Records
---
Amino acid sequence: MHAYIDETRKRPVRVAETIVIKAARQRFGKSSFTKAELLRFALSDPRSVNSYVTPDLGLARKMFKEIVKAARPLIHSKNRQELTIEFVNGSLIRFHSEKQGESLRGYTTTGVLIVDEGSSFKDTTFYEYIAPWVTVHKALTIIISTPKFKVGFFYESYKEGCNQTNPYYRTFDWVRNYPVPIAPEDLAKKDKMPAMKWQSEYEGEFIDAQGTVFDLSGCFSQEDTSQPYFEIYLGLDFGTGSGKDRTVLTGINEFGQQVFIWTTNDLSPGEQIEQICEIVDTFTYDDTGNKGQRVVRSKIKSFYVEQNSIGKIYSDAIIRRGYTIHPFVTTNSSKRKLVENMQVAFQRKEVKLKVDPIQLAELSFYESKTNPVTNLVTYNAPPGMHDDHVIALMLAYKGYQENVSDENKYEIIL
C-alpha cells in the first residue's frame, strides 16, 4: 500500500485519486498509519498543505497532540485553538471535525487529505464540504474506517475501488489481506454485543442497512412461569389512542421470565389509570416480619414508564396516586440503547417470553433503517404496525438488567 501511495505521487500527470481502507476496530493500527502518512507527506513535500478530518473533535485533538509529540524538533509553530501545525520546511497539517459543518467550506489540500472513520460521516458533509479540498491541486485522498452499513459514501467508495469501475479509486481490505487475530480480551466481549455490531467492529464487515432486529430463536419459555416469584420488573408503554395502538404493561421476574402482559386499546385515559393501579397493587407477597407478624411486601423492583407524547400526562397521574415509577424519555439514542441491550438479551437467551401472538408479530417485524444521507440508524415498527409490546418489554428488561444479581449481570458495549 505504501508503494501504491508513492506511485501516485510520482505520476507525471496528477489526478485526484482516492484510496479506501477498510479495517476492523483496533488491532490494525489505523491511528499509527494515519499519523505516519500525515508526517510523511508534510516532511517530504515542503510547503504542502495536508488535512486530517474526523467525525469527532476530540479525536482530531488527540491526533494533533500525538503528532506534536512525535515531531516536536521539526515543528516551527503550532496552534492549539485552530489545530494547525506548521513545520520548519513550510508544510502545514490542519485538523478538522465534521461537526464544524459549513465552516469546512473553502479549504484547500495540496498533499494528502485523510478522512478518518469515514463510515460515520454524513454524505452531505463529505461531498459538499470536504471532497472539494483536493480538486484544485489533485491531492490524494485516503479514506480509512471501520465499516458500518451498506449505505453512504464510504461504502460506495469502497465498492467503486473493489469493482474497478473508477481507475482513480483503489480499495485495500486490511481485514482480509492482512489478518490479525482478535485479542482474547476482545473475544470475551462477543456475547456482550449485538451480533451485527460485532460483525462490523471486530470482523470488519459491512452490515445490512435495514432489516429485522431481533433473533427470537430459543427465547420462548418452556418452563412453568406460574412458579412462585418474588420480584417483578415492569415496563409500561401508553397508547396515544390513534390508529388503535395499545397501552401495554408487561413484567419480567427475577428468573428472566416474562410473567405478565396486559394490554388495552378501548379504555378511556381515566379507566386506564384505574386499571393499571389496580394491577400494580396485585404484585405483592406475604412475608414474616422481625416479630413473626405477617407482612405484605411488594414484588415490584422497578417500574419504567415511557414518557413521550401522552405518556407524561398518564405517568404523572400514576405518581399523584402515590406510586413510584422511573420515567423514560424515548429519543433515537435512548431507544438504540434499549434495542441493543434487548438484542444481546435474546442472543444470550437471557429472557424467556410468553407466547403472545401480537407481541410475537411486533418483535418479529420490528426493523432497523439507516438514513443513507446522515448514516443515522432508527428502530421502528414497519408501516401499518405498532411497537407498543416491544417498547414495554424493553423497558421491563431495562429494570431487570439494572437489578439482577452480580453473577448474572453483564455490561453492554455501546
---
Amino acid sequence: MTSKLALRGGPKAVQKDPAGIFDWPLVTPEVEAAVLEVLRAGKMSGTDVTKMFEREFADFHGVKYALGHNTGTASLQSAMFGLGIGKGDEVICPSITYWASCLPVYSLGGTVVFADIDPVTLCIDPADIEHRITSRTKAIIVVHYMGHPAEMDTIMAIANKHGIPVIEDPSHAHGGLYKGKLVGTIGAAAGFSLMTGKSLATGEGGIMITNDQRVYERAIAFGHYERHGDLTLPDLVAGAGLPWGGYKDRMHQLSSAMARVQLLKYPAEMAEIDKAMNYFWDLLEGVPGIRTHRPPKGSGLTMGGWYAAAGLYVPEELGGLSVTRFCEAVAAEGVPTGPGCNKALHLHPLFNTLDVYRDGLPTRIANSPAGVDVRQPVGSLPVAEGIQARVYRIPWFKHYWPEIIAEYAQGYRKVAENYKELLADDPGNPPGGGNWFLSQRRGA
C-alpha cells in the first residue's frame, strides 16, 4: 500500500509556488525614498526623524511619550531604569521568552524571579505570580508571547493590589488588542523590538512607551545624553550632560525613517496577515493533535501581526507521536515548520552559576540579601520545562491567498490523519528542545 505521506514517498501537500507570501518586510518605493533622504543628507546619527517617529508611534498607541532606541533590548532596559529598578531589586518574568525581556535587569544590579506559563496562551500564568512577590519585587514583566495577549485584567489586579508596576514586552504582538486596548498601553511602560523580522519591521531598533513623565525622562537621562536638553524634572536636570547608565541608546535614523513609513502602512498589512493566519487556523479546526494558538473568537483579543506564529500540540490524541516526528513529517510535505519555542530561561547557567561581574557569587544572587536564593532548579516550573513537546512553528503568511494557504494547512492535516504510519520508528523528542532565541526565517 502506497503511503499518502510525503515522508514515505507520497506526493507533497504543497505544490504551488508561494510567490512571495512569506516575503518580509515589504519594502516599497516610499520606504526606499525615506531612507535615502536621510542617507543623502548625512543625518544617520541625528534625532529629528526619530522624534517624528516617536510622536507618531505614541499617537498610534494613544500614549503621551515614546522614546526610540537602537534595540528592543535597550528599550526594555530603559523602561526598567525609568521605573527605578536597581541594586537588589527583583522583577518577575515568564521563563519562556526571549532573554531580553528580563536579562537587562542584571546591568542595573537587580535580579529576576521566573514564573510559569499558561499552557494555552504560552504567556505568563497569572496564578503563578502573586506568591512570588516579595518586598524586593519592583516590577512584573508581561510578554505577549508569540503574538498572544497575556491575561492583563488578572495581572493588573495583582499588580495594583501590591503597588507593583507592570512592564509589557509586546515585541511579538505589534498592534494586538486586549479587550479593545492596544498591548503595550496597559502597564506602566512597554518596550518593543523593531528588528527586521518583527511584524513592524524597521531594520533594527526599539521603542519604549509610557504615560509617566518621570519614567520617560529617566530613560532619557540613562541612555540619551544628546537629548538631556529635553529634561524638565529638576533632579534629572541637575545631573544632565552625561548618560547615567553609560549607554548610547540612540536610534539610527535610517531605521526611524523606515519606521515612519512602516507605521503608516502597518494597519493594512496587519489586517491582511490576520485574515490569512485566521483562515489557516480555520482550516485546521477540529484536527486531532492540533490546537490553535490564538484567542477565542469574540474575546476582544487579537494577535496583531502574528510574529513567531505557533501551534499547540496534543500528542495524546496522536498515539503519543512526538512533536519532533510530527514536524519532520509536516516539513516533508513542503511546509516550513519545526518543534519547540524559546527554552526555559531559568535553567540556563546564566541564571544559575555564572558570575558575570566577578562578584564572587552567581550574578543571579549576587545582590540579594544574605540567605536569599531566588534560583529555580529543574522541576520548579513544570509547564515551562515541558512546553517544548507541545509547541510547533507554523508558516507566517503575509498575504491572504487562500489557495496557497490551503496547501500548507493540508500538510498538517495529512500528517495528523495518518499519524499511525509514523509511530513505529518515532525516535521521540531529543532532550531539552527549543532555542534560546527565535529566528523568523523565510516562511517560518
---
Amino acid sequence: MHNYKELFVWKRAIKLCSLIYKLTADFPNEERFGLISQMRRASVSVPSNIAEGGGRRTDKEFVHFLGIAHGSICELETQLYVSVELEFTDFDKIDFVTNEITEIQKMLYALILKFDAKSN
C-alpha cells in the first residue's frame, strides 16, 4: 500500500478539482448535465484514482490506477479546449489550469515509470 495523502501529485490534483469547479461555475446553465458534469467528473477522477491505486496491494495495481488518472487528466485537458472553442471560457482563464494539468501529467508519468520499473 502507498500513502497517497503524502503524494504531492495527489495534493495538486485535489486543488485542480477546486479550480475546475470554480471555472465551470461560470459556464452556461444548460451545460450543467453536459460539459460541466464531464469536466467535474474527470477532475475528481484524477485524485480518486491516485487514492484507489494507493490503497491497492501491489505496485502493478498502483501503476494501473495511475494510468487511469493520467487518462482522466488528458480527458479534462481536451474538455478545456472544447470549452474555449464553444466560447464558454477563454485561453486567459484556462492558462493557469492548463499549466497545472501539464505539471500533474508529468508527475503522474514519472510515478508510473518509477513504480512500473519496480513491479517488473
---
Amino acid sequence: MQNIPWHVLHVLSNHENRVAQHLTVRCVEHYVPLYREKVKWTDRTKVTERPLFSGYVFARISAQNRIAAISTPGVLRVLGDDLRDMVSEEELGRIRQGLTGGLLLQPHPQVPVGTRVRILVGAFTGVEGVVSEMRKQCRVVLSLAAVRQSFSLEIGIDDLIILDHPTGAPGTRIIPAYGN
C-alpha cells in the first residue's frame, strides 16, 4: 500500500469527517488532518477539532478501490489525474508529525500576487493596495498619486481584507492611487 500515492478528494464543505467514516467502512485508507481551535460562544469557550484543509480528504486510491472511493457519499471529485496532482507520503508525514508533535498548524488563506486589498489596522487603515509579494508577511504596494511614486508595506494577512482577485495578464500589476 505504501507505493500507492495519496489522491485528493474534493468533498462537500463540512462533510470531511462523514466522508472519512464512509471510506473506513469501504476499506479505503484516508487521512483528514485536524487542528484544534478555541471557539468562543456567549456562555463558554470550547476547543474543537476542524479540518486543516476544509473541503478535502486525502485517500490512497488503487485500481481496486477507485469506484468505492469516488462513489462515497459527499465526494464531489478526485482532483487531478497525474502524479503532480497527488500528495506525497513525505508531505502528509510532515503534516501528521507537526499535528501530533503539538505544532500550531492552522489554515491560512492563499492570497495571490496582484490581489487588491484594503488595510484594516494601523496608520494605513482604509488604504487600498496590491499584494506584490507573499513571505512570512504580506507585502502590499501603495502609491502616492501626487508624486507618482509607490512604496511597499509589510503587514499580516489578518490585517487585510481582499477586495478582488487579480484580473490582468500574468506579470501585470495595477497599482491604485494612494487613498483610493
